[in-house]
Design brief:
Length: 128
């Protein structure tokens, strides 16, 4: 297992979607749970649940075939509200298509919610 669990989890989700699977299992962490909640709220994945596999806990995720691509952004970039549009152009294929996921002082949220609350944060992943 690698160092970046978020990147590993998003890679598993992306590969499972690409191969047409209806569900996948990824490692569990609080950050991954928060990112999955944002992706679920924005309609990219279905429900997910925590399952215990021996010594570890994992998330079983229902895939709904609405995800084209997702990934972790490394290094984690600190961005302000004014820089979000620049990063939308860099990381997303088109304007208003997809989400950037940020870690802010008010929790994990997508860039649209962060813009509406006028807060910046660390850019951690994207999905479209």
């Amino acid at each position: 297992m690698g160092q970046d669990l978020l990147n590993e989890a998003l890679t598993v989700i992306r590969n499972a979607e690409a191969s047409g699977k209806s569900e996948c299992v990824v490692p569990a962490s609080k950050l991954i749970k928060d990112v999955l909640l944002v992706m679920q709220k924005d309609g990219y994945i279905g429900s997910f649940e925590s399952i215990e596999t021996g010594k570890s806990v994992k998330f079983k995720i229902e895939l709904i075939m609405k995800l084209n691509n997702c990934g972790a952004i490394s290094p984690k970039l600190s961005i302000g509200v004014k820089e979000m549009e620049k990063h939308e152009i860099i990381h997303l294929p088109a304007k208003d298509f997809g989400i950037l996921i940020l870690s802010t002082s008010r929790g994990i949220m997508d860039h649209k919610e962060a813009k509406s609350k006028n807060i910046g944060g660390k850019l951690i992943s994207f999905a479209y």
